[in-house]
Task: structure prediction
Amino acid sequence: MSELRYTLLTDGSSDAALIPILTWLLTTNGVGWAIQAEWADLRGVCQSRKLVNRIIPSLDLYPCDLLFVHRDAEREPREKRVHEINKAIEKIVASHSVPPAVCVVPVRMQETWLLFDEAAIRHASGNRSGRQPLPLSPIKRLEKVPDPKTKLYEYLKQASGLSGRRLKRFPVRQRARRVAEFIDDFSPLRALSAFAALEEDIQQIIEQRSWGA
Result:
């Protein structure tokens, strides 16, 4: 195998921001081949919210060596979301060829994993050299932030240095999707339980499949 292809199935389009994180985890944990990542864009293809009904077209349209299935924990325990994903995959295995699958379940949502890097937030805001204060929470407290998405949007707006009409036109959702692209090192997230669990699952798959360099 000269490259590793993976597909990411997410709750929504903004969660495609997880791709730089997943690629970093694969390379950091020893995958030496080229990595080809695809976000499973099911808009216009599948309107169902049932996970089983979304996994099948994801595999059909985006064949891969490794499937990542994302669900935000939100107000539920991470273990409940993992159980839901695994049950959905079990239902499919009998009738479909399913590659190794890894559950991606941030606590509380994927934006939690973007709230630790001030330089990346400033870069994504379009005002890289700005000096507006960004009161980031200590990393070990990030999983306690009640609404990470709103908090990330606030930081991006503050970092932009804009005001008035220009701030109202600021494309905050678009900029939020780019934060992960400006982060080179996600290792500080190892202090978070959900991220550590994800890395452990990835390590196990790499070892089982002999994908290490």
Observations:
- The chain has a mean pLDDT of 94.
- The chain has two domains: 3-107+192-209, 111-181.
- The beta strands are 3-9, 34-39, 66-70, 101-104.
